[in-house]
Amino acid sequence: MINFEFYNPTKVIFGKGVEAEAGKEIKALGGHKVLVHYGGTFLQENGTLDRVHKGLEDAGLDYIDLGGVVPNPRLGLVKEGIQLCKDEGVDFLLPIGGGSAIDSAKGIGYGLVNDFSLEDLLLGKVTTDKIAPIGCISTIAATGSETSNSMVITIEDGMLKRSYNHDCARPKFAIMNPELTYTLPVYQTASGGSDIMMHTMERYFTNTKDVDLIDRMAEGLLVSVREAVKVAVKEPQNYEARATLMWAGSLSHNGLTGTGRVSDFASHKIEHELGGMFDVAHGAGLCAIWGSWARYVLKTNPTRFAQFAVNVFNVPENFYNMEVTALKGIEAWEDWCRKIGMPTNLKELGVEPTDAQIEEMARKCVATGGGHVGFFQTLYKDDVIKIYEMARK
Hints:
Dehydroquinate synthase-like, alpha domain; globular; 2 domains; single chain; 16 helices
């Protein structure tokens, strides 16, 4: 286990009906005027937006709405939100939704209190530890952005999907009512559950030794999510399955399962280019990529893959050949993906990139890491091209 720092100050308010408490929490934190940020129309249709508005009014807070958030949130809306907040005197941000709404609000928060272009922040040209205060109401179990330090935004010029991570971006509070996820489409539920799995797996696949404690935590989380997704796609109003997924989404990406080890995140970097170029659902894109990444890097540490196979997917261990066990674990993951309606390759994802598009995605991918990505196995441009090509078949 290596040295680490773990910082997670987000107050979690979890359970039925808790979205009504947002106003009280913001008031206690000194907020006066709130930007309510969201996407789609379901919040109006199911009455959630009205309940949140009433909670803000009861707390004596002013507010203004900004809708329009889309999956793979766009920098253009972030900039619109920054200007709106400046014009209206907003001092607290309240996104309602999943990672897209929360990340968009984080972008607004950075832009509101810093004097630089958001492009420069996302492209790594500047850094900051300042952000406007944010609380959030989560309605999707997926990204874990409600308690994480990360933000992912798509820059429309070039359709670059880029991230910035800093602990200042952890929301002051995260309100999570599993009932608000009941009406999610099956595909979105499965995609979100896959994202939770992948956030844990990106940290689990490490070459750091003596990390048994967090391994066991991660394996327990993965097994619980594996089963909860299968229930939630068949029984959308199963509260316990939804609650498991919602809490697991935060635990998978708040940094806990990455403590004491070097994490990988190459699959995320590779998928981000798919999301930028083809605008695919993030969790589904990860499912389409991971099996190819896994087969490509397996020989780096087959024992780690075999451990995953045995402890997460109950694959019988072949004591004479760890690689056989490891491959069966990858196959078990892909079988799970198919059972919940997720793709296991690019064709199933509905994407058939040309050679030129693969070259472009690979080039952009490794550029985010100074010419390479990943820590389980360092991947250069040609490696990423081969993974895309494997996933295309």
